[in-house]
Amino acid sequence: MSATSEQEAKGPFPVVPFLKIPEKGDPYLEAQQCKACQAIFLRERSTCSSCGARGQMAPKRLSNTGTLYVYSIVHRSFPGIEVPYISSIVDLDGGGTIKGNLINIEPDPEKVKMGMPVEVIYQIAPRKDAEGNEYLTYYFQPRA
Ligand SMILES: [Zn+2]
Questions:
Q1: Do residues 93 and 65 touch, judged by C-beta distance below 8 A?
Q2: Where are the alpha helices (H) located in the chain, listed in sequence order?
Q3: Distance in angstroms (rounded) separating the CA atoms of residues 85 and 43
Q4: For a designed S-S bond to 137, which of 15, 19, 55, 141 qualifies (C-beta 3.0 to 4.6 A apart)?
Q5: Pick from 44, 90, 98, 43: which is nearest to 69 by CA?
Q6: Which region among 2-6, 14-18, 68-72 has the lowest average model confidence (pLDDT)?
Q7: 86 pLDDT higher than 60
Q8: pTM of the full predicted structure?
Q9: Exposed (0-12), middle (13-18) or buried (19+): which is 17, by Cβ within 10 Å?
């Protein structure tokens, strides 16, 4: 990254709306939690689809640690996307279930275990958009 390209390109922008990038400090994931029934949703909504309460949603900062709930090793994808990779769903500590790619581990069923401890990491996405904007994305990786 040269100084010139930093001035031209904007961002990084969050790759999904529930990824928050504060002015200062580290990025984090934020969900909406129903104050009536504690259900957690990633997308903004005004009515809880769990208990039906209206206007009870409050932002909730999610944990960066969790456990692997389920995964699949993807061998075929869109052109330009490297395979195999591990698509996974993680239960975050304290609530929230999030889909994302599991990295920094071999895509081998012998190595990837359901229930293994993982953590959320944040990285600049490998590709920019047509305007050259950078995006920040998140992955999961095994936690020691
Ligand atoms: Zn609710």
A1: yes
A2: 3-8
A3: 25
A4: 15
A5: 90
A6: 2-6
A7: yes
A8: 0.86
A9: exposed
47 C-alpha to center of ligand 1: Å? 8
Dist. CA 122–CA 29, nearest whole Å: 10
Distance in Å, CA 60 to ligand 1 centroid: 14
More confident residue, 23 or 66: 66
Distance from the alpha carbon of residue 74 to the mean position of ligand 1, in angstroms: 34
Kindly give the distance from the C-alpha atom of residue 99 to the centroid of ligand 1, in angstroms, as a whole number.
Answer: 21
Residue type at position 110: E
Name residue, tokens 């895509």: 107
Q: Cβ neighbours of residue 127 under 8 Å, at least 6 residues apart?
A: none
Which residue, 126, 120, 110, 109, is CA-closest to 142? 120
- What does the pLDDT look like over 47-56, one tens digit per residue? 999 999 999 9
How far, in Å, CA of 6 to CA of 118, rounded? Answer: 32
